[in-house]
């Protein structure tokens, strides 16, 4: 006996996979952005506490 998926089942499986992939990608991107922003904020705070003269552009 051969088991085969109907077109509707195949589309449903593809849709579920797409939703799960999008969700994990969104969550991973959000966490990555949060870490980058945290590092940027810390670097700005440390530069504020230790002022350096601004560089002159010619």
Class per helix and strand makeup = mainly alpha
Fraction of residues in helix: over 70%
Sheet having the most strands: none
Tally of strands = 0
Return the average pLDDT rounded to an integer. Answer: 83
C-alpha-based Rg, rounded: 24 Å
Hey, roughly how much beta strand do the residues contain? under 5%
Keywords, please?
58 residues; mainly alpha; rod-shaped
Task: Describe the overall structure.
This protein is mostly helical and 58 residues long. The protein has one domain (1-42). It has one helix at residues 7-49. The longest helix is centred in the middle third of the chain and has 43 residues, at 7-49. The mean pLDDT is 83.
Record the SSE blueprint.
Elements: H1 7-49
Short structural description:
By secondary structure, the protein is mainly α. The protein has one helix spanning 7-49. It has one domain (1-42).
């Amino acid at each position: 006996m051969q088991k085969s998926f109907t077109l509707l089942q195949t589309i449903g499986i593809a849709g579920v996979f797409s939703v799960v992939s999008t969700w994990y990608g969104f969550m991973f991107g959000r966490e990555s952005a949060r870490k980058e922003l945290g590092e940027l904020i810390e670097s700005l705070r440390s530069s504020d506490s230790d002022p350096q003269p601004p560089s002159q552009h010619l």
